[in-house]
């Protein structure tokens, strides 16, 4: 394989086009040779951008299997709707193509097993593009955990706290799949932004695993109120949305830790991921950008407020090596630099023929939370077992 990775880009909606323009076209060692989308205008716009960038006009198609059959394609970048992710990843692995898949949740545990089985049958790596695993704070906290700064970890929490009402309400006009998801499903539909970094902190699939979950959902009134106030004369006026406004999921791990995930996307709020790590020696809280370390902040009540927003004081001592190098090289665009890092890691794996840092077992374990939470909510918050997709290899896997 040459040093330049030749890719096929499948899915050219907002995320796919954003990644093409902000990240992929700016990577000198990557060339887009084919693009695919169901909509012709998206295909042609992407092809125009690539051609204008000086790499020649790519192959355009509405049938992704045509790209998977191209011998010139080294890897696939997949940015389609959630419901098509796993099948396309499986098809790509069957054709011997490394594949990077945008985030999303599963629709059944069975499709997650099919994903794992396809990898074990073909040996072709796939990687979920969970950019939050490469956030500066998330990696610094991971480094601190590995150094023992927080002591023994007991609990982690996080959430997808993002007001998406406008995106959902105008889903038909924007040809965005979230609208139908919120009309028909009620689950933790977007678990991986918060779960990915937590899974790395807790060694999930590498010495630890998730055992079971309980999910509950609030009533679903946020979208209806938004539609009534903003789009009262639209065909959505009489639509009943199933997706609860707040979904809370609690996960139990084999080593005894607990995880709380929160989905909060249909009520007015600011954006946050709520990343929190609690250990026997201290804590990290994203919401006020604070560290509390027992040995340094012993006067709990009198001095705690003075420590709010103190994370920057600890950068020099605990910055993760990935971000140390990144700061020296120059942080790039894309969600505060996270997008560039996750793609860089994927393309390095393709170029070197090595395993991806987020592997198929991570992908299946994180995605399955959506379908399992749907089951738990439907059963009134009943506990649901989480499969061991490694079939016991988590005990010794490093």
Describe the structure.
This protein has about 400 residues and is α/β, with parallel strands linked by helices. The protein has two domains: about 5-130, NAD(P)-binding Rossmann-like Domain (Rossmann fold), CATH 3.40.50; about 135-320 and about 360-395, Dihydrodipicolinate Reductase, domain 2. It is built from 16 helices and 14 strands. The protein has helices at about 15-20, 40-50, 65-70, 85-95, 110-120, 135-145, 165-170, 170-175, 180-185, 190-200, 220-230, 300-305, 315-320, 320-330, 340-350, 360-380; strands spanning about 5-10, 30-35, 60, 75-80, 100, 125-130, 155-160, 210-215, 245-255, 260-265, 275-280, 280-285, 290-295, 385. An eight-stranded mixed β-sheet has the order 13-12-11-7-10-9-8-14, with helices on one face. Strands 3-2-1-4-5-6 form a six-stranded parallel β-sheet, sandwiched between helices. β4, α4 (about 85-95) and β5 (about 100) form a beta-alpha-beta unit. The protein is globular. The chain starts with a strand and ends in a 13-residue tail after the last strand.
Core attributes:
Dihydrodipicolinate Reductase, domain 2, Rossmann fold, 6-stranded parallel beta sheet, alpha/beta, 16 helices, 2 domains
